[in-house]
Amino acid sequence: MTLEIRDLAFAYGDEPVLDGIDLTARSGELLGLLGPNGSGKSTLLQTLNRILEPDAGSVRVAGDRVSELDRTALARRIGYVPQDEQGAFPATVFETILQGRRPHGGWSPGPDDRAAVEATIERLGLAEFTTRNVADLSGGQRQKVRLGRALVGDPPVLLLDEPTSALDLKHQLDVMELVVGHVRQRGVTGVVAIHDLNLAARYCDRVALLSDGEIYDVGGPNVLTPETIRDVYGVEATVKDHRGRRLIVTERPVDALPADARTPVASADDD
Fold first, then answer.
1. How far apart are CA 221 and CA 231, in angstroms?
2. Is it the case that residue 270 has pLDDT exceeding 50?
3. Residue 10: which domain range?
């Protein structure tokens, strides 16, 4: 199910955050949103899901305007995984994931809803924690629960906001493998805001680089070059090919160098 974003703009009061965003995400691909803090990644995700209402432009899912869908119809089409959640009521793993079935079964879940939750819990490797309070889980386990709540409704579009933030290396890989596997096996349209350039290069089919609320560049992981990383992040970097993947090694902030030394570090592609 195609997700189309056209000329999207958003501001917090008089402070513009997004300006003229044009993007298309396709079924079966994971599109990464990259950029430094404040570039608009999280805000963009929240405008796609109508957590925030854009000031201008349009968002369409399979040709339908998101702004014209009611909340239930929107929740059936778009699943959202936030960075973190504060102040959530105590609930077990089963109860939390079951919340993702409400757009389908309402407040009275039936056998199909319960079966879907059980299958999702098993798929995420959380079976031993089914009756455990989510607050008692590790950060990586809680993130899997949030992911499960989004997946259990089987939405055709999946939005993820920094799903690997604050996770250790194993859980980062676990979560990204789960996301990519789901996107490709189910033909889901996935959009993920992510900080780690190497995870983005490894798992994302395409990436969109945001800078000051605008699209700097869009393309495959090969758009991550020393030049683009320097321009968007203000960081010198070495970029290499490693086992068919892009490998980014950050070197130093650009402003830490004398002006006459601020030249891009060579990419392995230049050899």
1. 16
2. no
3. 3-224
β-bridge pairing 214-219 and 235-242: unpaired
Q: Cα separation of 53 and 10, whole Å?
A: 8
CB 143 within 8 A of CB 137: no
Distance CA 133, CA 157 (A): 28
% of the chain beyond a pLDDT of 70: 92
Residue 140 confidence (pLDDT) above 90: no
Distance (Å, whole) CA 121 – CA 64: 32
Residue 123 exposed, middle or buried by CB count within 10 Å (0-12, 13-18, 19+): middle
- Same-domain check for residues 89 and 218: yes
> Is 176 found in the same domain as 243?
no
Tokens of 216: 């700097």
| Dihedral angle over CA of 62, 68, 73, 78, nearest 10 | 50
Contacts of 243 (CB under 8 A, 6+ apart): none
Banded pLDDT at 106 (limits 50, 70, 90): low
Give strand pairing partners of 237.
Answer: 250
- Dig out the tokens for 51 from the structure: 């957590």
**What is the number of structural domains in the chain?**
2
pTM score of the predicted model: 0.89
- Tens digit of pLDDT for each residue in 223-268? 999 999 999 999 999 999 888 889 999 999 988 656 555 454 555 4
Split at pLDDT 50, 70, 90, the class of 139 is confident
Helices (H) then strands (E): counts for the chain: 9, 12
Reported residue count of the chain is 271
Q: How far is CA 79 from the centre of its chain?
A: 11
Please enumerate in sequence order all residues whose Cβ is within 8 A of that of 256, keeping only pairs 6 or more positions apart, or say none: none
